[in-house]
Each structure stands twice: as C-alpha cells, then as structure tokens.
Specification:
About 35% of the residues lie in helices and about 15% in strands. It is α/β, with parallel strands linked by helices. The chain has a six-stranded parallel beta sheet. Helix 4 runs parallel beside helix 5 (about 130-140) and helix 5 packs parallel to helix 6.
Length: about 220
C-alpha cells in the first residue's frame, strides 16, 4: 500500500482500520492495534519518499464516548470518529452523540458525516449544520469519502463547511491498491462543490498536516 501510494505521487498515507467495536470487519482490539503501530514505525524507518501515518477509525458509542481509551488514542497520529450502530436514536440524540464525540481531546476528523450509501441507505437524521459549526469551533475536520457509492458530503454541506472555514479531507476506502483509483471521484465531488486547494486538508504537505492535526489534540 505504501509503495502504491508513492507511485501515485502521495507524500503520505494513513492506515485507519476500524476499532474493536466493529466486529463484523474484524476491528482492531488493543493488542492488534499496538502491533500494527509497531509495524508502521518499523516500516517508516526503511520507507523513502512516503510516510505511513498511524490512524484508527474509532467507533462513536451511543453516549458519544469513543471506543478506545485515551492512553491508546494519544499514541495515534490521527483519530477518525464514526458512528457504526444505534442509528434508531432521535435526531436530537444522534446529533448530541456526535457533538460529544467531537469534543473528545483526541478527535481529528468526523468520518461518515452523513453515513449515506448512494441508492442503498439514506443519510443519518442529524443536524448537519450544527455539526459543521462544531467542527469549526473545535478545529477538527470532516471526511468527504471518495468511494463512488459514498461521497458523504453533499454540495450544500461542502459549501457550508467552506464558508465556516472547516477543512475537508478527501479520503478513499482502499482495501487493496486497486482502490487508489477512487481518489478521482472524491476530487470530482470536491470540484463539483467548488472547493479549492486551500479548503482541502490533505492537499497540505506532511509538515503542514502534522501541525493541523496536532492542534486537534486538545
């Protein structure tokens, strides 16, 4: 994956496996996550031309807490929070759940901010404008997933994020090196939403990205 990223011209990649609460996808428990972090550290010692970042997509639980403890999250380069269950809660409770998670001191980015799957499942029933304003005040980021069935952020939400000064990350689901090609769909969605380079988190250099991420670790 690292070599494919380098061939694609990327300066960095992040591994963001699911955390332990998502058992259906064999989410990483504490031991497996620690082992993966060690392997990434070893890999970065020999990699040239690209850096592999240690990330995790941690589950946002029903009460808004995160699925992994602080002493683990503090060792991760970037922490994505995402809802994976309890979608039957009321609009108010789902929104508060996300807002509480975003207030966590180790929270970099809200993944799946709408949760939609095109022609498969509707978006979450949440107050997205309020979530965008929370991201602005908290200084964290929102995901625009490049997978053609996801493209989570609608044009109106991207425009609102841009107006609020919230940076969007064009992430892509890559279960193999073939999935790198999906990045073009995310870029296309960003262009459709009139986002520019300065509005996108991962157009930054690794040094710039690191400084922005560090500011989210309050």
């Amino acid at each position: 994956m690292a070599l494919a990223g380098k061939s694609s011209g990327f300066e960095y990649l992040a591994s963001t496996e699911h955390s332990r609460c998502l058992t259906a996808t064999h989410g990483l428990d504490l031991l497996r996550l620690a082992r993966q972090c060690d392997e990434i550290d070893q890999l970065n010692e020999v990699l040239e031309g690209i850096t592999f970042l240690k990330g995790i997509e941690v589950g946002i639980l029903e009460d808004g807490s995160l699925d992994l403890p602080d002493n683990v999250l503090v060792q991760i380069d970037l922490v994505l929070g995402a809802m994976h269950s309890n979608f039957e809660l009321s609009r108010a409770r789902e929104t508060e759940r996300i807002l509480r998670a975003m207030s966590h001191p180790h929270f970099t980015m809200l993944a799946h901010p709408t949760g939609r799957l095109i022609q498969q499942s509707a978006p979450y029933d949440v107050d997205t404008p309020r979530i965008i304003r929370k991201a602005r005040n908290r200084g964290c980021f929102l995901e625009l997933n490049a997978h053609p069935e996801r493209l989570y952020l609608f044009d109106t939400y991207c425009q609102m994020a841009k107006e609020e000064g919230v940076l969007i990350s064009i992430n892509f689901v890559a279960h193999s090196t073939y999935d790198f090609a999906n990045m073009r769909f995310g870029i296309g969605q960003a262009r459709r939403c009139w986002l520019e380079k300065q509005n996108v988190l991962n157009t930054r250099s690794l040094c710039e990205l690191g400084a922005l991420i560090q500011r989210t670790m309050v």
